[in-house]
Design goal:
- The structure is a homodimer.
- In chain A, strand 3 and strand 4 (about 110-115) form a beta hairpin.
- The first copy, chain A, has two domains: about 35-95 and about 260-470, Aminopeptidase (3-Layer(aba) Sandwich); about 95-255, Glucose Oxidase, domain 1, CATH 3.50.30.
- The two termini of chain A are about 35 Å apart.
- The first copy, chain A, has 14 helices and 18 strands.
- Chain A has helices at about 1-45, 45-55, 65-80, 140-155, 170-180, 180-185, 185-190, 230-240, 295-315, 335-345, 375-390, 425-430, 445-465, 465-470, and strands at about 85-95, 95-100, 105-110, 110-115, 120, 130-140, 155-160, 195-200, 225-230, 245-250, 255, 260-270, 275-285, 320-325, 350-355, 365-370, 395-400, 415-420.
- Chain A has about 475 residues and is of the alpha/beta class.
- The interface of A and B includes residues 42, 204, 425, 426 and 442 of A.
Chain lengths: ~475, ~475
């Protein structure tokens, strides 16, 4: 009896002690997360770096001279941080595209020509010498083209005008429901013999700012000139078309140059306990040429660098290897993502987690995560057993959801993938436009995103185990 | 045996049925909250109303002609919404203050005069004819004045230069820790014989924008001229003072005019079941005269109106009376809040809840709540039993915390008080400045705040019971 009482007391003691240790560790973590936030808010360099990238270099489509300037710029910054390794990783850009200097969409009316605010879509070809002139026909989606058929479409300029749904809280969902018009609309129009294509800009606001973005012509579909017009211009054109038939004149000097080589840029702090376990943070280095890519995705680049720099400043030595990756070519080809994933596959390293920031430099609301179904359960359990709770006091959620285009290919390799989710309300004011500039980014919001990423990496580094290890 | 089995089955059935009803009600609520968000995002009038209030009328300190224009403007809008009652409620403004047309803070150096970007503090008097010139002395807080004593302070211009802590995530906490310099610093300086006072602007960013705000001279303390200078100007002045003694020249033509009368504006939808139970939504109608009061607090005004308008548009008939209140004079006297609370005290109505929006028109992060300690427990339980959970899918938190200056006096009357908490990172870029204008407000963010308020009011209307009823 005495013996069993002692045993019980002992067990209770161990249990209590364990509870105290756990609770003390929780306090240490909260203190560290506060320290991270304070450090980034007071001494973070993100905003200065972003100024150099966006205002200093500007638009930087993969393959352009500016994109190479950006590679050197990021490499130089990484070189100053005292990291364990910095390198450029070669990649192939499937198609280097240039916009050219002339962009015109003009409706010809009885009262004269009406200029529409426009921008050429990436991947589309130039108009014929002397421009392109044809009757314009408005449609609401790709189905309409099939429904109307070649008889109606042939020789015309197709105008896709289905708006993004401004009633959706999640602007990215609204974007997802409308962007097929831009990505595949011109291809579909071409299949049915259209001479050109105009797309309503992908934004939930009504203004005069046109939004560019990639359009894709697969297989043997003949590329046709394709441009986006601002939402106000789209409304204007639509109002005209309700009254009658109109000719539109399009002119663009865009050019597809084919494959070129470029680079991702990598920098890392080697893990002290598990250097073979990699946690990636990053975004994409390329940006559309009509703006300066401040939100998209300069923000993700500088926030990723800040994660490493904050750890260095705080003297935090990670257990796993923390690697920043500046992916090249997210916007029009994903050459960088492919090169990185291929190289990861060939390595003996294991990608434990990856965090992508590619949704703007706004106040962070949380992270969404995804993983291969074979490991998702094991990861989910670990997230729910403390990591989510640790971020809760900072009003940062952790939810199942998407991750990002550049880290997506790592899913099959067993990594837990995260996408930073900044507040999405303002993003589509700036996305792929000439006004995506440094003055559209608030320094404190940008820093809060970097601090959220650093906090998550800290927690993953301390608590996330490889699914095989976690199952043991 | 048969009997008891039947009884058990019956109980199980009732239990299951109740569960189903509850779960079905949850679905109905979620649907309604989605509907509210969609309605506000697509058809909300907040942004147009705010344009009229901020750009159309502009700054509107209580007692000014502009503040009366604002009273009429809001009354007119309310008149168009098909409400059950709209009225102006008289209140006394303790002191109508005007800024005058000249504002100068100049450091006299060997290299010539250096102009500092400045704004007069509300409630402070004008400088003597010909301006005020004196040696300036920098301090970090009110304690310093006591420590230095009359010998050092007398005849000087006191310069308070303790910055807001930019390392704090919660900018309002940083503000709270610094603002004593502006509110009570000049009074303290005057007590020790200072001739004038300069305060570093209350903001966590470094720029050239001066921030005004109220300063208070209580009892028989002699009011002295008091002005704020921009943070960059404060750094400049401080840098000079590290090198030697300097004279500063101050000039302001501010004037205190004493008490005047004004109005709150009220509009309401009568409750169908408990018209005597009031749920208040609102903000303050007055705004500092150096800007146009778009965030502070035009946003709160238009969001409060939008709550009523959304219910009308959706055909939602509330069970309790939903009352919008545009409070006058929050900035420098709280005459409106006092009048409203006094009138509430004399009424037989019961204030069930009140929601104040006075922290900017940014993306809503959640609500903080407070109540008298005698009823807080009963309310907390109700919030936790479903209301918090219903807002969770919208990433809107509900936490214990502060409420607001205008609804605060209702605390003693048993009301559950809420403050809308928009994201706080950008607020102190604009607070009390000339750049607090409509272009600093994002339409979707403003609408999201209105939708969050409408959602909370809907939930309170359906689930919040008077503490006496809840305890039964």
């Amino acid at each position: 009896m005495l013996k069993s009482t002692s045993l019980l007391s002992c067990l209770v003691c161990i249990f209590l002690l364990q509870g105290m240790v756990l609770s003390a560790q929780k306090d240490v973590d909260q203190l560290m997360l506060k320290k991270i936030h304070r450090e980034v808010l007071l001494h973070g360099e993100v905003y200065q770096w972003l100024r150099g990238l966006s205002e200093g270099i500007g638009g930087r489509l993969a393959g352009s001279p500016e994109s190479m300037e950006a590679v050197h710029y990021v490499h130089r910054i990484l070189d100053t941080l005292g990291l364990d390794a910095v390198r450029d990783q070669p990649c192939i850009i499937p198609n280097y595209w240039t916009r050219g200097s002339v962009e015109k969409v003009i409706v010809q009316t009885d009262d004269g020509d009406v200029d529409l605010s426009c921008t050429t879509l990436g991947g589309s070809p130039s108009t014929p010498k002397g421009g392109l002139q044809a009757v314009v026909i408005e449609v609401q989606g790709l189905d309409d083209i099939e429904r109307l058929g070649r008889d109606v479409i042939e020789g015309k300029i197709v105008f896709y005008n289905r708006p993004m749904d401004a009633g959706k809280i999640e602007t990215f969902h609204a974007y997802g429901k409308a962007v097929d018009q831009r990505v595949f609309g011109p291809e579909m129009a071409s299949k049915y013999g259209a001479a050109g294509c105009i797309v309503r800009s992908m934004t939930n606001v009504l203004d005069d700012v046109p939004h560019t973005g990639v359009t894709i012509f697969r297989d043997k579909v003949k590329p046709i000139p394709a441009m986006a017009i601002s939402t106000r211009a789209a409304d204007k054109l639509s109002a005209l078309l309700r009254k009658g038939m109109y000719n539109v004149y399009m002119e663009t000097h865009a050019e597809n140059h084919g494959p070129v080589s470029s680079f991702n840029v990598l920098g890392e702090i080697k893990g002290s306990q598990h250097p073979e376990n990699i946690i990636v943070v990053g975004g994409h280095l390329d940006a559309w040429d009509n703006g300066t890519g401040a939100h998209d995705d300069g923000a993700g680049i500088v926030q990723g660098i800040e994660v490493l720099y904050t750890f260095k400043r705080l003297g935090y030595q990670p257990k796993n290897t923390i690697r920043f990756v500046a992916f090249m070519n997210e916007e029009n080809g994903s050459g960088g993502a492919r090169a990185y994933a291929d190289s990861a596959k060939q390595s003996t390293d294991f990608h434990l987690a990856a965090i992508e920031s590619d949704a703007g430099g706004f106040t962070p609301r949380g992270f969404t995560y995804a993983a291969d179904s074979s490991v998702l359960g094991a990861y989910k359990e670990q997230l729910e057993s403390g990591i989510e709770a640790a971020l809760c006091p900072f009003d940062i959620y952790v939810k199942a959801g998407g991750s990002g285009a550049d880290i997506g290919p790592l899913k099959g390799q067993g990594a837990l993938l995260f996408g930073l989710r900044p507040d999405p309300q303002r993003y589509f004011n700036f996305h792929h436009t000439a006004i995506d500039r440094i003055d559209a980014v608030n320094e404190r919001e940008l820093k809060m995103g970097a601090a959220a990423m650093t906090s998550l990496v800290y927690l993953l580094d301390n608590y996330l185990q490889r699914p095989d290890a976690a199952n043991k």
